[in-house]
């Protein structure tokens, strides 16, 4: 296993960690690009999902959007963007990643708001809340766990997509893999692959904890109770 | 003053001139997808059945597959290639792994969703555990199995393109070549063909599913 030894040597070289093309700055760039992409996707998907879910219309449309994007390869959209005026590098990658991050946010937000207990809505209405106030103070807090789950899914997906930027001259951790292939230095390729994989697994774990902490205790208890009921039944 | 040559996104001339390249990439793409799905199905069925018969294993199987699914395909190919040193095998193994995860999950959900009254009835008729699995549970889980295969196939068709990182990405190869030479027609033609493969495969599998599960017709 020559490649494994070479990868360990590569990872042990402090020069590969520091500097503008070092692991640390590439990871920071990777995460910054991911943040922008998720932010863009949320900017588009959250309002639409909240509105459609609140009005309880457009269920089929959100499913169609989700299915249609599955057949289109991310690489294809990325290369089409990179071939047009959008230019090389990080910009087409962030935009392509953002587009593919929309469906999970959209469908989860929609489902979360649609499935708010009608009794809670009725109670808000009966207490004289306006529809807007009911949405902000009753429906949104109740839908929060699912909205959060959608954001988490899309964030993981984006972090996994950003490595493709290296193929169109962009940054992020994919650069290590791409450089390794260009130099036929397969230890570097292996090290880059492991770094990207570790980043994704760590991000998944961190976001799972964040989601748990961000869920209000009452809703956490409610969800746990309904899970227990489901397991017992 | 010379004007830039035409660079249309759609060009029949491009297709005619590059037909042999397109055909090579197309057949590479289709054969990779078929092999990956066939291998993954062959491995997923016994694995899901095992997890179903030994419920204690199902948590481990699902947890492991979830963790593996988090790893991006680009990283997986980058990890596999230095160890395997074969372009086709690298892409194939990667594709099989992702398809496997989707399939095992769907089959397991299908097996667990079989109406307990049906398995009870089979047990009452004196069926053994294995016979219940093969003759009762698997046929009843068939719709879920086919849904899993459809999902895995569409995902695999898109994933093949990531194979460009090791230089074996089917139509992704053409997409990338088109990008490098800023040849619009090449990028868009290979994209449309990839989407077409996914759609055709999905429709074919949907038809196969309808033929294989005639009892679900008329319901709903």
TrEMBL record, chain A:
Transmembrane segments: 31-52, 64-88, 158-177, 189-210
Presence of keyword Mitochondrion: no
Membrane topology value: Multi-pass membrane protein
Chief localisation class: membrane
Keyword terms, alphabetized: Membrane, Transmembrane, Transmembrane helix, Transport
Domain ABC transmembrane type-1 stretches: 27-207
Subcellular location: Cell membrane; Membrane
Alphabetized InterPro entries for the sequence: ABC_transp_perm/SBD (IPR051204), MetI-like (IPR000515), MetI-like_sf (IPR035906)
Highest taxon of source: Bacteria
A Pfam match: BPD_transp_1
Sequence similarity: Belongs to the binding-protein-dependent transport system permease family.
Listed name of the protein: ABC transporter permease
Protein species of origin: Actinotalea lenta
Organism phylogeny: Bacteria, Bacillati, Actinomycetota, Actinomycetes, Micrococcales
TrEMBL record, chain B:
Cellular compartments annotated: Cell membrane; Membrane
Transmembrane segments: 36-53, 60-83, 89-111, 157-176, 188-209
Domain ABC transmembrane type-1: 26-205
Gene3D superfamilies: MetI-like (1.10.3720.10)
CDD domains from the UniProt entry: TM_PBP2 (cd06261)
Keyword Transmembrane recorded: yes
Predominant location: membrane
InterPro entries membership: ABC_transp_perm/SBD, MetI-like, MetI-like_sf
Keyword Cell inner membrane among UniProt keywords: no
Membrane-related topology note: Multi-pass membrane protein
Keywords: Membrane, Transmembrane, Transmembrane helix, Transport
Family: Belongs to the binding-protein-dependent transport system permease family.
PANTHER family noted in UniProt: GLYCINE BETAINE/L-PROLINE TRANSPORT SYSTEM PERMEASE PROTEIN PROW, OSMOPROTECTANT IMPORT PERMEASE PROTEIN OSMW
Identification of the protein by name: ABC transporter permease
Organism lineage: Bacteria, Bacillati, Actinomycetota, Actinomycetes, Micrococcales
């Amino acid at each position: 296993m020559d490649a494994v030894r070479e990868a360990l040597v590569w990872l042990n070289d402090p020069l590969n960690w520091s500097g503008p093309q070092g692991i640390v700055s590439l990871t920071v760039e990777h995460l910054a690009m991911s943040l922008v992409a998720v932010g863009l996707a949320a900017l588009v998907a959250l309002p639409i999902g909240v509105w459609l879910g609140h009005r309880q219309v457009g269920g089929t449309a959100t499913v169609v959007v989700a299915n249609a994007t599955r057949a289109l390869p991310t690489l294809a959209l990325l290369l089409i963007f990179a071939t047009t005026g959008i230019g090389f590098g990080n910009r087409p990658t962030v935009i392509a990643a953002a587009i593919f991050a929309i469906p999970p946010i959209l469908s989860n937000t929609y489902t979360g708001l649609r499935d708010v207990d009608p009794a809670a809505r009725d109670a808000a209405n009966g207490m004289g809340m306006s529809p807007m106030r009911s949405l902000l103070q009753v429906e949104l807090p109740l839908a929060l766990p699912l909205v959060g789950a959608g954001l988490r899914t899309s964030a993981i997906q984006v972090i996994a997509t950003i490595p493709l930027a290296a193929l169109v001259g962009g940054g992020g951790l994919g650069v290590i893999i791409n450089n390794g292939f260009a130099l036929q230095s397969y230890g570097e390729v292996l090290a880059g692959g492991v770094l990207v994989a570790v980043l994704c697994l760590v991000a998944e774990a961190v976001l799972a904890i964040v989601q748990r902490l961000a869920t209000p205790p009452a809703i956490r208890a409610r969800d746990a109770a309904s899970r227990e009921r489901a397991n017992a039944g | 003053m010379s004007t830039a040559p035409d660079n249309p996104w759609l060009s029949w001339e491009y297709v005619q001139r590059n037909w042999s390249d397109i055909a090579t990439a197309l057949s590479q793409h289709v054969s990779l997808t078929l092999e990956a799905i066939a291998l993954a199905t062959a491995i997923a069925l016994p694995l899901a059945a095992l997890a179903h018969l030994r419920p204690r294993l199902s948590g481990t199987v699902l947890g492991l597959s979830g963790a593996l699914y988090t790893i991006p395909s680009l990283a997986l190919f980058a990890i596999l290639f230095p160890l395997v040193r074969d372009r086709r095998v690298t892409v194939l193994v990667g594709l099989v792994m992702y398809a496997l995860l989707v399939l095992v999950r769907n089959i397991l959900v299908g097996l667990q969703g079989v109406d307990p009254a049906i398995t009870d009835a089979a047990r009452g008729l004196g069926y053994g555990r294995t016979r219940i699995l093969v003759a009762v549970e698997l046929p009843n889980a068939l719709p879920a199995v086919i849904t899993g295969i459809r999902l895995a196939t569409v995902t695999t068709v898109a994933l093949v393109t990531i194979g460009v990182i090791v230089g074996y990405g089917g139509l992704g190869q053409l997409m990338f070549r088109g990008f490098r030479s800023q040849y619009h027609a090449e990028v868009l033609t290979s994209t449309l063909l990839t989407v077409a493969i996914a759609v055709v495969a999905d429709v074919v599998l949907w038809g196969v599913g309808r033929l294989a599960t005639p009892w679900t017709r008329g319901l709903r």
